[in-house]
Amino acid sequence: MGTLSQLITLRYLRCAVDEEAVLMSVAFSNFYTSDFSKKIIETNIFSKIIPTATMFSKNEETVEKQEQRISSYWDGILKKENIDLNDFSEIYGTIDCFGEFFVYLSMKSIPYILIENSPNQFNIPNRCIGPERGLHFNHSYTLVLEKHKALYGEGDLCKKRLRFESEKTDHSKSLPKDEWIDFNALFNNSSTQFKHIILSCLDEQASFLSEKDACLILPNSYGVHTPITKLDFAHMNIVYQIALDYYNHNDESRIFVKEHPYALYDFRLDKYLENPVTLNAYIPIEFYKFIPEFSISRLISVNTSTISKIAEYIKESIRLGDTYYWNFRLCHKLVLTFSLNKEFSNQKTFQYAQGVNDEFLQTFVHYCINDFPNYKPQMKFGWQSLKGDNFIILDEVPSENKKDLIAGLDGADSLTKIVFLNSKKDFMFFEFERFDLLEYITPFVIKKTALNDTCISDTDDEMLFFFCKDKAVREKAKSFVLQKSLKHTKLSLEISAVNIKDIYPLLYRREYVSRIQEINRAFESQSKQTNDVSKQIEGLSKSFNEYKERSDARIDALTDICRNLTQTVEASHKTVYESLSKSLDENRAHSDAHIDELTNICRNLTQTVEQLSAEMRKNEMRTEEHISQAVSEIKGLYRSLLTSNSWRIGRAVTWLPRKIKGLFRHS
Hints:
The protein has helices at residues 4-14, 35-42, 63-80, 100-107, 130-135, 139-148, 183-188, 192-200, 222-229, 238-247, 323-327, 331-344, 358-368, 402-411, 471-478, 500-503, 510-643, 646-665; strands at 22-26, 48-52, 92-94, 112-115, 158-164, 178-181, 215-218, 255-258, 277-279, 296-301, 314-319, 350-354, 390-394, 417-420, 441-450, 462-467, 481-486, 491-497. By secondary structure, it is an alpha/beta fold. Helix 13 (358-368) links the parallel strand 12 and strand 13 (390-394). The longest helix is centred in the C-terminal third of the chain and has 134 residues, at 510-643. The model has no long low-confidence stretch (mean pLDDT 82).
């Protein structure tokens, strides 16, 4: 919807008035059923308006399924409306972050022309990831946009890219197909007939914008600010109600509300304001330029590209910036803070702030606090050195600086004044061991009361703490009272100091304090013992480290020796093994030869023994025969001898041995 004026301008510049033009719009915005869309058709700006969806392919898991769904959806739409895209001479389109229709055109090979929605939009990096990050589309949708180049127009099917001509446009990243157009100038210099057609489409309330104190507020879409503020839809408008109460310094001015075209109309902002003038959300803001004496006294927005289209008609533009969404809850506390600042500071007082967004703080002071026109705090200071005439605003304190801050509070002098906004409910300076610092603390309570049953703000009490060692300053602070009625937020604020003993009564009971002191002393004693033990442990650790270093050196040396011995033994074993193996092989060869020789000898000996045995048996047999024969003869001779005469006996005695010897000679 933000580029509807561009499309209408191009429709009258590039087409013949009698040619038909069809507009496709987003269905869930209800634009196609609005009175404005009916007037567009009645004046023949467009002959037909076709409602379309933008989230039908949110959960498909693959690129192929995304493409199938996109193709099926647009085929159905065109068939239902009896439209053939080939019948159109030109197809124009503006892209925010979806680009489904141009994915479809890419798949069907149909050429088109893209128009920038805002200056330099085509050069914004990572645009394809937008639906995935902001609306939790499946990653496959990002891949589809990248594949078909649907958001940048870099593909061949994009014939031309129509871009904003302005001083901020980056021409270095342009393409040959780029055509630079000053849409504002074309729109402003349009024909009288064209202006008359535009004026006939406006709502009746538009003429009130020329009032002296008209204040126009332009809310962002719910998809932009609800994820940041963490507010649900039922409470999302509180950010704009608070903005109107604090940043619109004229309570009597008439409030104009122009909702975002994609707003959820069950939660329209104008339902929570008193007598607002509601402008048609679908009418482009630049259409109001043609109203005679059109001007806007004050415009409040957070972050919108619309302002640039009517900048020359705005007397005061208050752009809060995205940081407002993160910090709007601090507005109540900051009103009190700067009231105390005014009360206890002078021109020589140094202003510091820590833990509060610089942009938000300075914007708040510039538009909401009239007493500090040149306020610009230093955002850094020495935590441990808080002496001097300083007024310090502290919110979130980094954990690594908390001990330093305690030391700084100890050493602070009577001129130092500190406000702890305490938005995180971080009572880090109320640690029990330092309850003595509470003597210098003055708590303030902001009591909130709903003015009527349409109030959507929370009514919980808020608390901040004022620190100063000057007793007179603290006594003056205790009597400080502030009341504020928030007309648009429907809230009444009553701010006053309270006794810290009422907030932390236990800290001021004598027996409790005595017990705390006893615990502190025990803690200090234990800390001393712990320090002594720590020193002993440190000494032992040092000795152990030295011993470990020496042991490591010895172990390294022994390791080297063992490694060398291992290498030597391995080498020696190898040599001995090779020598023994060689000797064994040689001995085995010699033994085999000796064994073969001995085997032959034994075989020969066996044969010889067998032969000798046979001969001996033969000789024994022959000897036995001779011996037997000789014995027989001896026996005969003996018998003869026994019968012979004596002379014969002597002869026989000598003869007998010779005879016997002769007998055995032949044996």
